[in-house]
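Hi X.,

You mentioned you wanted examples for the new student's onboarding notes, showing what a folding record looks like when two proteins sit in one file. Here is a clean example. The first protein comes first, with its sequence line followed by its C-alpha cells.
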Amino acid sequence: MMSKLQTIQFTSAHLPNGTPSEEHPLTNPGELLLCRHAADNTFTNPNFLLIHAHKNPFDDYQAPMFAMLTASSDDTVRPSADPLKKTFWMKTYSENKGILEQLEAQNILKRTGEKVNQGYVTLIGVETVLQRGQWSETCHGCGRLEQLDSVKPRMMRCGKCKDRYYCNKECQAAGWPAHKEDCKRICRVLAL
C-alpha cells in the first residue's frame, strides 16, 4: 500500500500573505509537494521539483511546478543506504535561495555533506527524508503529476524495477518502449 503524500508548508518573500483570490492566486503560506519528475529518467541524480499540492482554483493556466530542485552534474551523489530514499544535487542559488533551509526544517530533505563546484556555483548533495510513496510521482507514460485534489488514484509502479510510475496500464504500455532499456539497467544496479 502506498504512503500518503506529505505536504510542505512554504513561504516566499515574493508572494503576499493571506487567502488566495483572483487578484492574488498564489499567497503565503503555500502548500507544496516534493515531486520526482520523469525528465531524463536519471537514476543516479533523479529530478525533483516542488509542485503546488492543489490545482489553482483562480488560475487554470497555473503550472503545477513551483521550483526545480535538481541541478545537472557529471559527478554522482553518493546513493542513500536506504533504498526507499533518493539522493540528488540541489540548486540552492538564485530563485532557489532559502528553499533547502525550509525543506530541512520540515524534515523533507537533509544535506549529505557532499558539494560539487560547477563554474561559479556550488551544488549541494541532498537526501530525501521522505520515503518513496510520500512524494508525488510523474507518470512516465503521459507526464501527469500527482496532486492532492486529483480524482485519479495514486500511480502504479513498474513491476520489474519498481522505480517508474504510471497512471494506468495504458500509460505503462505507452511508456514501455522508452523505459525498456532503462528498466533493465535499473534492475542491474539494484541487483533485482
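Then the second protein repeats the pattern, sequence line and then C-alpha cells:
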Amino acid sequence: MDDSSRPPQQPVAPPPFALPPEHPQATVVLVLGILGVVGLPVVAPVAWYLGRQALREIDANPGAYSRREHVFIGYVLGIVGTALLAFLFVAFGAMFIVWAGMLISLAGSM
C-alpha cells in the first residue's frame, strides 16, 4: 500500500498548560476577609494575618502557587474589616463613657 493513499494525520497538540496548585489558604483568607467586612469583624484581623503570610509565601516562590488575587483581596478586606472593628471599639467605648457619665450624674443628683 502506498503512503500517499492515506489521509494526512493531524499534528498532535501539546498538552494543555497546567496551572500551579492553589495556595492552601487562598480560599480561607478570601472567605475570612469577606466575613470580616460583611458582618463578623472579629475574624478580619485573622484574614489580615493569614493573608500577609500567604502573600509572603507566594511572593517568595513565584510560580509555585496560583490564586494570588484571591489572597490579596482577602488580605485587603481583612485590613478594611480590622479598621471597621477598631471603629466599633471606639464607638462602643465612647458610648460606654457617655452612659457611665450619665449614671454618675444621676446618682449624684439624688
